[in-house]
Amino acid sequence: MRLIGITLAVYVTMEYVLPVVFPFCLGAIFAVVLYPLRRRLERKLHMRKEIAGFFSLLFVVALLGIVAAALVYGVMCGTNYVKESGLPQQMLMRGNEVWNVCCDSLHTWTGHWVMRPEDYRELVKELQQPQWYIETEQLVREWKEHGGQVLRILAYALVTIVSSMLFLSEWEAWKERWNMLAKELFHDGFTATLRSVSVTYVKAQSMIIFVIVLICVVGLLLGGEPYFLPLGIAIGVCDALPFLGTGICFLPWALWRLLKGRYLSGVWLILLYVLTSFVRQTLEPKLIGTKLGVPPLAVLFSIYIGIKVYSRAGFILGPISAFLIWQLYSRKAAREDGYENNKTTGKRDDMS
């Protein structure tokens, strides 16, 4: 009953409370990252901690703004270069070739025309047709659908920035409150354990990404791909994202090779996808579980249950929930065991 109650409490917190307080959690994370910079400004320039925290946050926001502006400028320059180089026309010609190959392959497999080669021209005309006129009702309807999301994102960003500045200016006091709360809810040394778990998780994920990238690069090299190095690195980075994985690259690529009749190359790409998926599913619980002293099966079970309970976010929330449940359960069990021992000792003393 005790374990069930703790599990339900953690689930309710992760599922319903965390989305509400998520901007404040981000603010606290930013405060942890910016605290050394705030201390340096406070010591070197003899600033007050509030002013030093403000300038630290301003520096990071300005840096992020410069990076975003550089990305936008790079995209604009790349778009102009693409237009001047005639790449869209080349892509249309390549798309026509791909369309014809798919039509012929499907006709060969099914015996009838699933899609016809002449349909490609109609598709290109529809895509190239300019949409200069926008109906007022359509504009209002799209704003109703997406305007709330935009305002919600802006509100989240504003709350995150303000909360990070407030956390940063009073971080010593908040740190002391957190330590008191951790001692009350969890066992002694919970903060150190949390830090150790976080570092272990980051190191394990870095090692897995390195292995996946190495497998992709070597596999594409053995497959005779001309751009094996950049493609292998890009596919390996995609594998680090739980919503993508290597399948989003290997499976369409393999399907295209099979449609073109290059069966050996298509099967090789499918084997690379299976191998990378197997390596991740094997190494992730083993690396994390071994370094933390947890059975690898338990780590894999927490990831699986997290995905089933929290959907896509369960890839991260599952292990975090399992960690919190175990820490709370250990603290509660230690307290009740200590209470029972003291009660038994007291009875023995009374009897003696």
Report a brief summary of the structure.
The chain is mainly alpha-helical. The protein is built from twelve helices and no strands.
Number of strands: 0
Gyration radius from CA atoms, angstroms: 28 Å
Question: What is the SS-derived class?
Answer: mainly alpha
Which residue ranges are poorly predicted, with pLDDT under 50 across at least 5 consecutive positions?
none
Percent of residues in helical segments?
A: over 70%
What's the domain count? 2
Arithmetic mean of pLDDT: 76
Figure out the total of helices: 12
Strand content: under 5%
H and E string: HHHHHHHHHHHH
* Major β-sheet annotation: none
Shape: globular
Calculate the terminal CA-CA distance, rounded to whole Å.
35 Å
